[in-house]
Specification:
Chain lengths: ~325, ~250
């Protein structure tokens, strides 16, 4: 088959996958729905992380702060009787404002210092969540009104995940993406050729905060209970990042593949070694760093597969734009 | 001829080290100015001050009559001054086209509309002879191609003044001749060129005037033929003994 026919095949497969996803709730497979929901959460987080971490080259280890802010804001508002859509929106606004404010000091740091400082933000948020008991319910967590909205949450999460991948793709092919790539490659040179780096760093952080906080709101709406370790803990902080890096940071497909791969592996390992999650992540990161620093999508095997299937677009400015 | 760029009493110190002291310079529009001097004389520091990457400790940089010292490299670029780097530093994993596109999208006086961007970038790649390599990642280019890409990237910002920092270093004589032709073509476009260079043959062939720096001070600023006869210049480059025995150099 030639390349054009391959691309059509891919689009048809994608359409089929979407159709299957759409009808799943009617097929009485509740466990699968839950599993896909979690997949959608991780996918949204990994792809939105990679906008700052991969496209721009600033490893924002504190990305899940947006998730937690979205979740807590939504939970608090849901308990006040606010309509879910409004609650989600407010979560996004809070997270975006936080992102805009924190970008001023945090982007004065580079490299490992930046990553450590952003990682510290998670601890900060966790401590705040634990101590502002009147607002957040403290270490006991916060429960939100239950309801028969599991299916709606499922659809919302899948749509959010797909939309996030779409946004990431459009960004990578645009002038915005070009700015981020230039900052990653050589920030000083980027400035020397006119890129307003301060503005784009802030914008990138804010853009990445939107899907993360939205999926945080949807998450709490669905599971009806969150606590500081659940949304400001190490697991939710590091998993999406490990997935993005395993798959291949700085690419469109990388985080997607990383999420699918690790979630499947996790599913298998969960029954065998339920307590070794974080250990496994650590081992994976070391192995990736040693043998596949570019992630799965940059391995020769993957490139060969891509060649044979005739797919694969590079994250880069598209001439059609 | 209008004065397009002016340095007034520019001094730059890093802590206790005086990298530049009282540089006074007036560059005529459309000319090629060479800047020579031993290593460590402050040539690249001068470029950094002019392009806005460094703020002068004292003094002012004036571009088309208005002060630009301390504006920041991105604003200075948009005003019309762009530069290349001594050690070619393109955006490594981006393609040659994307490298030039960065300048086109962000470095111009007014950003071009979407449908013009690629054309403008390709035009510069064609100008330096890299059109065939437009989709190659910059890190895969040879040294001379990277040097040409540096020039294309700087030209993409539609500059009025271009600062070339040792653009022929590391090149073979034929590659050097190619760059010389490119620089002449740049001048024909009406762009003012300031070039740091070590190879006197290139300086003699291209430059309308030459500035000589030594330990951060300017010791000569004249036509090339005069500069190479200046005793202070000869002493700086060759040592005191040579000063008395060197005649005219070509």
């Amino acid at each position: 088959m030639n390349k054009v026919q391959h691309s059509t095949a891919i689009y048809w497969s994608a359409a089929l996958a979407v159709a299957i996803l759409a009808v799943l709730p009617w097929l009485s497979v509740p466990y699968l729905l839950v599993w896909i929901f979690l997949l959608a959460v991780y996918l949204t987080l990994a792809v939105s992380y990679d906008i700052v971490g991969g496209y721009m080259g600033y490893m924002n280890l504190g990305h899940s702060v947006f998730f937690g802010l979205g979740a807590y804001t939504t939970a608090i508002l849901l308990n006040e009787g606010v309509h879910p859509v409004l609650a989600f929106g407010s979560g996004v606004v809070v997270a975006a404002c936080f992102g805009a404010l924190v970008s001023l000091p945090i982007f004065r740091l580079r490299g490992a210092y930046f990553s450590l400082a952003t990682f510290g933000l998670i601890s900060l948020m966790g401590i705040l969540a634990n101590n502002l008991r009147n607002l957040t319910g403290g270490s006991g967590g916060i429960s939100t009104p239950p309801g028969d909205h599991g299916t709606a949450a499922y659809y919302l999460s899948v749509v959010t995940a797909i939309a996030t991948v779409f946004i990431s793709r459009q960004l990578a092919r645009s002038k915005f993406g070009l700015a981020l790539f230039s900052i990653r490659e050589d920030e000083e040179a980027a400035r020397a050729f006119g890129t307003p780096t301060t503005m784009y760093k802030c914008l990138a952080l804010v853009v990445s905060s939107v899907p993360a906080s939205l999926i945080g709101g949807i998450y709490v709406w669905n599971v009806t209970y969150i606590s500081p370790p659940a949304v400001f803990g190490l697991e939710i902080a590091l998993s999406p990042i490990v997935m993005a890096m395993l798959g291949g940071t700085g690419t469109i497909a990388g985080p997607v593949i990383g999420v699918f791969f690790l979630t499947l592996v996790q599913e298998f390992l969960w029954t065998k070694m339920p307590y070794l999650h974080l250990t496994m992540y650590g081992i994976i990161m070391v192995l990736v760093g040693l043998f596949m620093p570019g992630g799965l999508v940059r391995t020769r095997l993957f490139r060969a597969i891509r060649e044979r299937l005739g797919i694969g677009e590079k994250a880069g400015y598209q001439r059609g734009n | 001829m209008a004065i397009i760029l002016e340095c007034q009493n520019i001094s730059k110190a890093f802590g206790g080290i005086a990298a530049l002291t009282n540089i006074n310079l007036r560059v005529e529009e459309g000319r090629i100015l060479g800047i020579i001097g031993p290593n460590g004389a402050g040539k690249t520091t001068l470029f950094n001050v002019i392009s806005g990457a460094l703020r002068p400790t004292r003094g002012k940089v004036l571009f088309q009559g208005r002060e630009i010292s301390g504006l920041g490299p991105d604003r200075v670029c948009r005003l019309g001054i762009s530069r290349t780097y001594q050690l070619a530093r393109p955006f490594a994993s981006l393609t040659a086209l994307e490298n030039v596109l960065v300048g086109v999208c962000f470095g111009r006086n007014s950003p071009p509309p979407r449908n013009r961007r690629v054309d403008l970038a390709m035009a510069e790649l064609e100008f330096v002879g890299l059109a065939a390599k437009a989709d190659q990642p910059a890190e895969n280019l040879t040294l001379v191609e990277k040097k040409h890409l540096e020039i294309a990237r700087a030209l993409g910002t539609d500059p009025k003044v271009i600062l070339l920092d040792e653009v022929v270093s590391g090149l073979t004589p034929s590659e050097t001749a190619g760059i010389i032709d490119t620089i002449k073509a740049i001048q024909r476009r009406g762009i003012t060129v300031m070039m740091i260079e070590h190879i006197l043959r290139v300086v003699m062939e291209l430059c309308d005037s030459v500035l000589v720096l030594h330990f951060g001070t300017q010791i000569a600023h004249d036509r090339p033929a005069e500069v190479v006869k200046d005793p202070q210049v000869i002493e700086a480059y060759l040592g005191r003994g040579e000063r008395d025995s060197v005649g005219c150099r070509g």
